[in-house]
Amino acid sequence: MTNDHFSDLLLDHPLLGQPLDRLPTPVAIVDLDQLETNIAAMADFFAPLPANLRPHAKTHRAPAVARRQIAAGAIGITCAKVGMAEAMADGGIVDLYIANQVVPREAIGRLVNLARRATVTVAVDELGNIADLSAAASAADVTLNVVIEIDAGMGRCGVQPGAPALALAEAIVRAPGLRFAGLHAYEGHMVDNPDRAIRQTGTEAMLALVMETKQVIERAGIEVVTITCGGTGTYDISGVYPGVTEHQAGSYVYMDPGYSGLVPLFQPALSVLTTVVSRPAPAKVITDAGMQTLANDYGDPAVHEHPELALLYLSEEHGAWSAEANGLEPGDQLRVFPGHCCAAANMHDTIYAVRNGVVEEVWAVTARGRSQ
To answer: Which of 84, 85, 131 is nearest to 105 (CA)?
Structure first.
C-alpha cells in the first residue's frame, strides 16, 4: 500500500513545494532529514536484538510518521488511548497496543470495534476491567490480546508484582474473548534522570521484578510471551535487558532540547516556525509563537538559528526572548525547538515536512486531541 492511499497526507495542499518563508506562522515543521536519521538510528539499534521496537505514537500523533517507523522495522505502534489507536488504524497501522487501561463502557465498545480491523492489545491491572473487556469482546465475537501492567517502581497504574499479577493472569486465561499476552511495565520514573548510572540501576531493578513475576506465572503453567516496556531515555538499557520482547520508545523521532542532551544519538526534528513581531528593546525579541503553539512543561524551548536567545516567558500567543542587539528585526523567521516535543505535537493540526528549506509533504495530525 502506498502513502497516497492515506487521507492524512495532504497531497493537494497549496504550500507543497514552497519555501519556509511562504508558510504562515506560527506553524509546526519537521526536518525530514533529521526525522529519518532518528528513525534509522533507533531501528538500527534494535535490528540485531531479541527485543522488537513498538514506538509510542503519543510523541507525533501522525500516521505519516508511524508508517515510516513501521517501514524501518517496527513491529507495530503503541498508543495511549483508543482514539489515538483509531487514528493510527485509519492511517494503515494494523498492530496496535494501547498501553493503558480502557475502562469506560463507551471506550471498551470502540476498542472491540477496532479489533475488527486491527490486531489490538490492551493493558489491565484489575479483575473488574478484565470481566468488562471479556463481555464486550465475546459479544462482538473478537479477541483482544491483554497484558498485565505491573507497578514495579513508577507508582502510577499497575498491579503489584508476583502473586497479585498471577491472579490476574489466571483470570484472563479463563475469560472468553481475551488472550493473555504478557506483562507491561514502564520505567517512567527513570527515563529522564540525568545520571546514567541511576537510570540503569533503577530500570534494571524494575525489570528484575517483572522477570520474577514472569517466572511466577509460568510456574503456574501460563505462558508469558510478551514483556513490553521502555522509553527513549532508557532505550539502550531496557532494550537490551534479557527477556524484554518489545520496546516503546517514542520521543526519539521528534526530540526536544532537554531530552536530546540525555540521549545525544537523537536530535530535535520538530520545530515551530515563528516570526519576530517586535523588538521593543535592544535586549528583547518578541515572537508570534507562545504557549499555545510551543510547549514548555518539560523544559525551555530553544531557538535553532540563535542559541544566544534565552526564553524570558511564554504567554498565550507571544514568546519573549532575551538577547542583545543581534540583527533580528520584525518579519524575520526563527525555528524554535519546543521544550516538550510530545505536548507540542498535540497543539497542531498540520505538520509541514521540510527538506532543504522546502515543503516536501504536509501531514494531518489525525490523532491530535484523541484522548478518549
So the answer is: 131
Q: How far apart are CA 240 and CA 348, in angstroms?
A: 35
Per-residue pLDDT averaged across 48-64, rounded? Answer: 98
d(CA 93, CA 96): 7
CA–CA distance from 234 to each of 40, 149, 191, 245, 248 (Å)? Answer: 17, 18, 6, 15, 10
Residue 157 has pLDDT above 70, yes or no: yes
φ, ψ at 182 (rounded to 5°): 155, -145
Cell of 11: 497531497
Q: Contact 162/212 with Cβ under 8 angstroms?
A: yes
- Residue 161, all three cell numbers: 508484582
Which pLDDT score is estimated for 324?
Answer: 79
Measured N-to-C along each axis, helices 32-46 and 63-71 cross at an angle, to the nearest 10 degrees, of 40
Give the pLDDT confidence of 165-174 residue by residue, as tens digits: 999 999 999 9
Cβ-contact 145, 181 below 8 angstroms = yes
| Per-residue model confidence as pLDDT tens digits over 198-231 | 999 999 999 999 999 999 999 999 999 999 999 9
CB 121 within 8 A of CB 144: yes
Verify cis geometry, omega within 30 degrees of 0, for the bond prior to 26: yes
| Structure confidence by residue, pLDDT tens digits, 108-120 | 999 999 999 999 9
Categorize the per-residue pLDDT at 2 as very low, low, confident or very high, splitting at 50, 70 and 90.
very low
Q: What is the pLDDT of residue 67?
A: 98
Across-strand partners of 336?
272, 303
Which residue's entry shows cell 480502557? 102
Q: Cα(67)–Cα(69) distance, rounded to whole angstroms?
A: 5
Element holding 112 (H helix, E strand)? helix 105-114
d(CA 331, CA 310): 19
Q: Which of 365, 335, 328 is nearest to 348 (CA)?
A: 365
The answer, yes or no, to whether residue 148 has pLDDT greater than 70, is yes
Strands 319-322 and 284-287: antiparallel
Please answer whether residues 29 and 20 qualify as being in contact, where contact means their C-beta atoms are separated by less than 8 angstroms.
Answer: yes
Verdict on whether the full-model pTM lies above 0.85: yes
Query: For residue 157, what is the DSSP state?
Result: S
Contacts of 28 (CB under 8 A, 6+ apart): 270, 271, 272, 273, 293, 344, 345, 347, 348, 350, 351, 352
